[in-house]
Design goal:
This is tRNA glutamyl-Q(34) synthetase GluQRS. By secondary structure, the protein is of the alpha/beta class. It has helices at about 30-45, 65-75, 90-105, 115-120, 180-190, 205-215, 250-260, 275-285, 290-295, and strands at about 15-20, 50-55, 85, 110, 140-145, 150-155, 160, 170-175, 195-200, 225, 230, 300.
């Protein structure tokens, strides 16, 4: 199988490779710190690598300088990554190679429908555009999803079943030429040799689509660990879209304690004012997946913003 975008895998010197992959649409908030901390802890406990990737495939959503703010926050919180930071804008050639391979092997088609028209298409059926010979540069590129996953075994949640929509076709490249998240994240993780993905539970539905791509590329999928979301007082998850407040890097130790609480590990009072490295050492010695796997309420965790 000729897949040039996976010809060079970057991390064959370690059995575990994790990553944190924020979008530069704003600085880190408490919810994103929980995801970063959870993935960092796992990588360090497994004596593996922890990579940082800036997911900037959607320039209209990017905030100038946000990547530097993200990196600064991670450093202030003691979350130091391995290897060089990677940016998705440097990977367009690999995404194009993946698209060309999928098209050449009959796994994709061009679609001229808008979002509303695609949603109106019967579940489990390809769009009528799949039968047309449409020009690539005038349409979105869509995957013929014949391999949509119905179940996964999440390290925290256990067996997870997906809705029927997990088998629907999905966009790989938008009509405006921007690459879609599902394609980019799979190609990036394959290329980096990622063995485990630790991320927030809000991304869980995307896993079904990503597994379809792993199957088509005949590449091993990573293990998945989805973490509880941090909710604000209004009942909404903390996110950049919901205007979650930026982390105050000046109180990194307090932020880490709150993030560990969201991960099911209360921090002893004696550590509340401890140095960042001491709090991280405590986390690495004491945190376990069971703290969230055995506590269903952790997935409705509310922390004051």
């Amino acid at each position: 199988m000729n897949l040039p975008f996976v010809a060079q895998r970057l991390n064959q010197d370690t059995s575990y490779v994790g990553r944190f992959a924020p979008s530069p649409s704003g600085p880190l908030h408490l919810g994103s710190l929980v995801a970063a901390l959870g993935s960092y802890i796992r990588a360090r406990q497994m004596d593996g690598k922890w990579l940082l990737r800036i997911e900037d495939i959607d320039p209209p959503r990017a905030l100038a300088g946000a990547d530097d703010l993200i990196k600064e926050s991670l450093v202030r919180h003691g979350l130091l990554w391995d290897d060089e930071v990677t940016y998705q804008h440097d990977s367009h050639q690999r995404y194009e190679q993946a698209l060309n391979w999928l098209q050449a092997n009959g796994h994709s088609y061009c679609c001229q429908c808008n979002r509303k028209q695609r949603l109106a298409n019967p579940k489990g059926q390809s769009c009528p555009c799949a039968q047309l010979a449409l020009a690539k540069d005038e349409c979105a590129t869509v995957l013929r999803n014949t391999l949509g996953a119905q179940h996964i075994q999440d390290l925290a949640l256990g067996a997870v079943s997906f809705a029927k929509g997990a088998c629907d076709d999905f966009i790989l490249r938008r009509k405006d030429g921007l690459y879609a998240y599902q394609l980019a994240v799979v190609v990036d993780d394959i290329y980096a040799g990622v063995t485990e993905v630790v991320r927030g539970a809000d991304i869980l539905p995307s896993t079904a689509y990503q597994l379809a791509l792993y199957q088509l590329f005949n590449q091993p999928a990573p293990a998945y660990l989805h973490l509880p979301l941090v909710m604000g007082d209004n009942g909404q998850k903390l996110s950049k879209q919901n205007h979650a407040p930026r982390l105050n890097d000046a109180v990194a130790n307090s932020n880490l304690c709150r993030a560990l609480g969201a991960l099911g590990l209360p921090v002893p009072r004696a550590l509340n004012n401890a140095a960042v490295n001491d709090i991280l050492e405590f986390a690495l010695s004491n945190w376990h997946i069971a703290f969230i796997a055995n506590n269903a309420s952790a997935f409705d965790n509310r922390i004051d913003a």
